[in-house]
Fold this sequence. Notes:
Layout lengths: L2 H5 L3 H24 L6 H35 L1
Amino acid sequence: MKASEIRQMSDDEIRGAFQDAKVEMFNLRFQLAAGSLEDTTRIKALRKDVARYLTVLREREIAAALVAEEDVNNAQ
């Protein structure tokens, strides 16, 4: 999934997709250990998606903190 697509999602949707990806990654690692995994590239793609989800959430967290800081500075 592209970062631009993730940025269009709400925080709750991103957190849900993050949880789904973590569960899928666990299952894929289990299949890899059992020797039944056919598409090993899916693990790498999921790792990157998880990183993108966390990055977008962190960007929003930082943006919210900056807005709150500006509000405090403007109120003084």
